[in-house]
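Schema walk-through. Below, the input block comes first and the output block second. Nothing else is stored per chain. Lengths vary across the set, and this one has 372 residues.
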Amino acid sequence: MSQQQYNQWRAMLAITKGGLKAMLRSPSAVLFSIAFPLIFILVFGFIGGNGGAPVYKLVLKPGSDTANQVYALLKSIPNVRFVQPAGEAELESDLVKGRITGVIAIQKASPTDTSSAPFQISFRSTSASGDKLATFLPFLENVVGKIDDVKYPDRPTYANINAPQITEVRKYRTIDFILPGQLGFSLLSAGVFGVAFLFFNLRQTLVLKRFYATPIKRTYIVLGEGLARVIFQLMTAVVIIGIGHFAFKFTLINGWLTFFEIIILSFLALLVFMGFGFIISSVAKNESSIPPFANLITLPQFLLAGTFFSIDVFPSWLQPICRILPLTYFNDAMRKIAFEGAHLTDTLFEIGVIALWGIIVYAVAVRVFKWE
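--- output ---
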């Protein structure tokens, strides 16, 4: 058959089919792509919370008294952070989306108040912050109690805490935080480890060299193997999201539209993560050197990119490093789309950072990639 008659696309699809069959028959591929993320979802879901010490983001209501012990003590606690939204609309939006724990008001008691407490504390929030409210309200009582014990032992209480005002909105569940991180975990693991081992073994077993004996072009070889990896990982993404939604009530706020947008986002992120795998497969001298190189890329992202717990729990000097990692932006965009109702067009900044990483990674991969 002549070179002109050879169908490159058909050959590429044959490679894709063969690669996909090999992955589906590989217990390790299924284990790392589906089983491990689901195990983590179960473990962290049953433990509850987002992991680590909770970080309470509070808004101080305008007109509140700031020359009091409660406010001073709250500001001195590392896991309490006072934030200031740009306006009332942004404040209400942040409350509904669970981005802030609530609004606190600390005011001097009225002169006509017969109670012995000089200050009154009011607090309002929404059920979207339900995971934080369960611990914040007892925490606030402990803060006031500490002031009573240390500074004013002879006074019944320094401040009265009024009954909190909690508005019912959609509830933010633990699964809404955990599942995006575990999906990112699966995509990053497969993109880096899977591609690195795949192309290293294709060279070592001379499969690539045998491909050269056929008319298929090198580009189509890479596309065929890469497409098999993409299809397999998107299938695992569908399984993870489906189990999360139907078994654990993972929020897909806009239904099927949210689902399809998550799949598109996963596809873009996977392409970038695969670029790391191409680089590692080329720089590794032997198969045993692949895991150290791969862990150098994946482990910091697993720990620092909001995979298991919010990056807000990290010290301020470490958070800029967290904000460099591509997995951070996948996790952020995923949570915004799934729970907050954002669309892909609302996450262009996160997608742009992921794309920038893709440009850098593939620029390096093209220079270092080896065929033999």
